[in-house]
Design goal:
Chain A contains 15 helices and 19 strands. Chain A is of the alpha+beta class. In chain A, α11 runs antiparallel to α12 and α14 runs antiparallel to α15. The mean pLDDT of chain A is 83. By secondary structure, chain B is an alpha+beta fold. Classes of the chains: A alpha+beta, B alpha+beta. At the A-B interface, α7, β18, α11, α13 and α14 of A face α4, β5, α5, α7 and α8 of B.
Chain lengths: 534, 325
């Protein structure tokens, strides 16, 4: 027992010193640590419930990805069959039941068709090298393309990766401080933006797919066709809420003249004639050429500017638009024009995202919660410290030192691992203060017991530590089991709580067992007491 | 300095004697708790129910009927109002908006906020959250799964480290703690949200802590006094660990008390749940898990060799027979 080597003493103090030092930046006001510049100062992040801000959980519709893929495949198939000689004539192409099927006009071309399809059906994905599409021939002349699960999973994964990037770019454009954007599960994105004043602007921005398309207006569509939403062949009926003609619908050609992918820039500006807000866009060289060509061929015809499958305006082409610059006008406000510009600049979301969970905490409440939390923690520490002192005397002082160091160490560890302190986290903190002394209570009670049984001072302390250590291990293991489960399954507040709890369990064992033991041993060696007051 | 002793030395309270009564009472309370939970149901927060929750702070204590009238005028479904924290703070809960797309929910939040700030100058929102039915379903599933896994994991740990009786009695005691907590929430109709699940898991953690300490002592005493009656061993162990049980409960209750009174209104339900859990957990450590050990037929077996470290003088020893020559 009295054998406590010097290297152990030194390393215990070293660990404590390092972890406590890590806690210091978090306890200082931000403006001080900011002035440290490059000197590392990890801080504990405050959760949104403390800092104020918005939390959004976005979800992509997986079916959209599937449908989008099939539509894209349909275009690819049509081009591929026409591209090479001999052309392969195909009949109606159908995309029903989540698969693509079409009829070959000439059944002898089956093998050639299959060969061409193979080139576009993907070579293989993932570890298993599974194909992205299965190709079947039914009744000798009908080709059926079915997307494989592996291909779909891969496509969703890619789409979500891209979507996360787009979301990040859009939020960065808003100029907010330290947003967190994390992919969660297969089709979700968590967005946390601290201290945002206007969560609505954020949601408006993220809710936009920003799929921009230019299509020609189909002027042959009759009012009757529009009303029944039955467009002529090769056209489709789209919503046009601000249609000056009165009905909020319009028919446009299916084929896309140009899409937002070919944009290089988008800015909000004011129209020189009407002084209304509008969005100025710039195409890349290829897009600019295409735009020039189409507008030249269609002078005096209207074309539709379509955003997320909704027509926002359908101006007349008065003259060919050369030079790759155009403007989009509609009934914009400055904010909505700016939001559209940001959305277009940051690119199209590969898949629409829906907000399925949202919470916003006002900055006042957050500040109040922090004040209350700090006050409660301080009072809790003071009460526990006083109580331990009157109960165990000198050994209480040791336990108290352990608790106070434990508080610093938890903050230090949280800062080190980049953890986030949430409101329940503060509760976990306070609870840890309460339970941290449990280990010392166990040890000290055991020492009292052994003294009562008539053992000598050093024997009692020796047995107190060794017997209690086993109990402390068993008890903390079970406590940790529930903490780990909370961490794995919990979301949001539960997770924040679990992190603090787990750190607290680990650090309290270290400080309560090892640290106090070291102090006790050093005292024993110094004074060699015949009796102890415990 | 004279040190404080909450529990006198050498207590000898016959806890086990009251076991029969305690079982009866526990059973009765458990049945009542389950009955109330089913009859009244829990007041689920938006986390689990889905819907939207707006916490609004007013410049002065508002007239509840007027607030209700203003919210009802928005035609967003039945609103439930609840005072929260101080008199100036109110939570307004509304059901999931039909049409299900998030535009509808956003519009609803906006409508309520605008209407309230017009009707009550100086009213600002503290926070709001909206959760779709789909997510709330997942949260319930994960919450239940977490609790079940925690209970199973701990039971398994107790079986591996101790004996099967300890596992069974510990799990029984946790189920008791859970039932009581749910009953408490059903009776008081405090809001049951995700934070409360965290509190419940913590209660499990703490309660287990407590039981393991006593179990550990029982195991130790079983080895030390191998011929002693089980009920005596349990009594002795509970008495021996009583000072620790009381001390630790007091320190934790001190810390939680600080949190309850000073920690702000957002955490109040959470803290209340934990305080209740600690009281219930301490009771169940003595009267459910330890006492159940006797009923489960655990007893020190004198025929099993006492594990010896090193050699003790005059100890009987057993070894493989030496091969005959």
């Amino acid at each position: 027992m009295l054998d406590f080597p010097r290297w152990k003493v030194i390393s215990i103090w070293l660990v404590i010193a390092v972890l406590c030092a890590l806690a210091i930046p978090s306890l200082l006001p931000q403006r001080i640590t900011d002035s440290w510049g490059a000197f590392p100062h990890p801080r504990v992040n405050l959760g949104l419930d403390l800092a104020g801000g918005s939390y959004l959980l976005l979800e992509a519709d997986v079916n959209d990805v599937a449908t989008g893929r099939i539509e894209a495949m349909r275009e690819q198939v049509q081009t591929e069959m026409r591209r090479q000689d001999p052309r392969i004539e195909i009949g109606d192409i159908s995309t029903r039941d989540n698969r693509l099927s079409f009829l070959l006009r000439d059944p002898t071309q089956v093998d050639a068709a299959r060969e061409r399809l193979t080139t576009i059906a993907g070579t293989g994905v993932g570890m298993t090298g599974q194909r992205e599409w299965d190709i079947q021939v039914v009744d000798g002349s009908r080709m059926v393309l079915t997307p494989t699960q592996a291909g779909l999973t891969q496509a969703i994964d890619t789409a979500m990766g891209d979507a996360t990037e787009v979301v990040r770019r859009r939020i960065d454009e808003l100029g907010t401080r330290e947003p967190t954007i994390i992919r969660q599960g297969s089709n979700r994105i968590v967005v946390q933006v601290p201290g945002l004043d206007n969560p609505q602007a954020l949601k408006d921005l993220l809710g936009k797919t920003a799929k921009l398309e230019f299509k020609l207006v189909d002027e042959t569509a009759t009012a009757q066709q529009l009303a029944s939403k039955q467009a002529p062949v090769g056209s489709q009926v789209l919503a046009y809420p601000t249609n000056p003609a009165g009905i909020p619908l319009i028919a446009v050609k299916r084929s896309v003249i140009l899409s937002g992918d070919q944009l290089t820039d988008a800015r909000q500006e004011f129209s020189q004639q009407t002084n209304e807000p509008q969005v100025a866009i710039t195409f890349d060289s290829q897009g600019g050429r295409k735009f020039a060509q189409v507008t030249r061929e269609n002078v005096n015809k209207p074309f539709a500017i379509i955003l997320d499958n909704q027509v926002i305006s359908a101006p007349n082409i008065n003259e060919p638009i050369l030079g790759g610059r155009a403007q989009i006008s509609g009934s914009f406000t400055v904010e909505s024009a700016n939001a559209l510009a940001i959305a277009l600049r940051s690119g199209k979301l590969p898949v629409a995202l829906k907000v399925i969970e949202e919470s916003t905490v006002g900055p006042d409440l957050g500040a109040e919660s922090i004040r209350a939390g700090i006050l409660a923690s301080a009072v809790a520490v003071a009460l526990v410290v006083a109580f331990m002192l009157v109960t165990y005397g000198r050994f209480g002082v040791y336990a108290n030192l352990a608790v106070v160091i434990n508080v610093f160490v938890i903050v230090g560890v949280l800062a080190l691992i980049g953890g986030t302190l949430t409101l329940p986290g503060i509760a976990g903190f306070v609870l840890t203060i309460g339970t941290a002394v449990d280990a010392n209570v166990l040890i000290n009670e055991r020492i009292r017991e052994e003294r009562r049984r008539g053992r000598s001072v050093s024997q009692s302390i020796e047995l107190g530590y060794s017997e209690a250590s086993r109990t402390i291990f068993e008890a903390n293991m079970t406590h940790a089991i529930s903490g780990i489960i909370m961490f794995l399954l919990g979301s949001g507040p539960v997770k924040g709580f679990a992190v603090v709890l787990l750190i607290g369990i680990a650090t309290s064992v270290f400080t309560a067992v090892l640290f106090t033991r070291m102090l006790t041993v050093q005292w024993l060696r110094r004074t060699k007491p015949k009796t102890i007051n415990i | 300095m004279k040190l404080l002793k909450l529990v006198p030395d050498h207590t000898n309270i016959d806890f086990v004697r009251l076991r029969g009564w305690a079982f009866g009472l526990t059973l009765l309370l458990s049945v009542l708790a389950i009955g109330v939970t089913f009859a009244k149901g829990l007041n689920f927060g938006v986390d689990f129910e889905g819907g939207l929750m707006i916490e609004e702070r007013f410049a002065s204590p508002p007239d509840l009927d007027r607030v209700r009238a203003v919210v009802d005028a928005q035609n967003l479904g039945e609103a439930s109002l609840q005072q929260f924290g101080d008199e100036r703070t109110l939570t307004i809960r509304l059901p999931i908006q039909q049409g299900a797309d998030e535009g509808a929910t956003n519009a609803a939040v906006k409508k309520v906020e605008t209407a309230l700030s017009q009707a009550f100058p100086g009213a600002t929102f503290n926070r709001y959250s909206t959760i779709s039915g789909k997510v709330s379903g997942e949260l319930i599933r994960n919450g239940v799964l977490a609790v079940v896994l925690a209970v199973l994991g701990i039971g398994l740990f107790a079986i591996v480290r101790f004996e099967w009786q300890f596992g069974v009695s510990t799990v029984a005691a946790i189920v008791h703690d859970l039932t009581m907590t749910l009953g408490f929430f059903a009776v008081t109709q405090f809001e049951f949200d995700l934070n409360i699940v965290a509190a419940v898991l913590t209660i499990i953690g703490y309660s287990i802590n407590d039981k393991i300490v006593i179990d550990d002592r029982i195991r130790e005493n079983m080895r030390r006094y191998r011929k002693m009656e089980m009920r005596e061993i349990v009594n002795l162990s509970v008495n021996e660990t009583l000072p620790r049980t009381v001390m630790t409960s007091v320190t934790i209750l001190l810390a939680l008390g600080a949190l309850l009174f000073l920690g702000g209104h957002v955490l109040r339900g959470f803290t209340a749940a934990m305080i209740l859990g600690i009281i219930v957990g301490t009771y169940s450590s003595i009267y459910v898990s330890s006492s159940l050990l006797i009923s489960l037929g655990l007893r020190a077996d004198p025929s099993i060799e006492k594990p010896v470290r090193g050699t003790i003088d005059n100890a009987e020893r057993i070894a493989p027979r030496e091969p005959r020559a």
